[in-house]
Amino acid sequence: MQLSRKAWNNVLIFSMLLMIFFFNGLHKKLNSVPEQPSIQTLLPAQSFILALSFPEQKVERIGTAWRSLLLLENPTSSEWSANQENIVKLINDWQGAELSVSEVSPAKLTQPITVATLWLAGEQLPWLYQLYSAPQGYYLLDKSTQRVFLIDANKAQQLFVSFEFLPSESN
């Protein structure tokens, strides 16, 4: 095959470009990581909770302290003392909560058992978390990101302290 020097240069340039594209794509395929880890935090990193609301009560930050307001008088709710230590523990539990992500579609979840609304510093809209019953515990739906977490009964009781968990629900 008779090619001029200019033609051979073009063949070399195009073959080098093809090799670069091939190796670049191969490199990305070999070093691929899973897109979503199985355990994730509920709240964004470095988030700061200003208020936390349940259907029966609201906890809000007042300066450096916390205040609990009873929104609904419910005689069947569990006894949860809303003193400063318990409120700080509840807030820390929400900020540090790490749960495993479930493959359940949010569309398959029907009726929530209870709901928690969190107002974070720097966010215009509150973050809404709905708790659903599941065969192996509970599901927690993050409405803002549409993530569904699998949560056991103990962790659910930690995060939703004023909600009465019936024995039939914790199966």
What does this molecule look like?
By secondary structure, this protein is α+β, with helices and mostly antiparallel strands. The protein has 2 domains: 1-32; 39-159, no CATH class. The protein has 3 helices and 9 strands. The protein has helices spanning 5-30, 84-96, 153-159, and strands spanning 39-41, 49-53, 57-62, 65-70, 98-101, 114-120, 127-134, 137-142, 147-151. Strands 1-5-9-8-7-6-2-3-4 form a 9-stranded antiparallel β-sheet. A hairpin with a 2-residue loop joins strand 3 and strand 4 (65-70). The radius of gyration is 26 Å and the shape is elongated. The N and C termini lie far apart (77 Å). The relative contact order is 0.15.
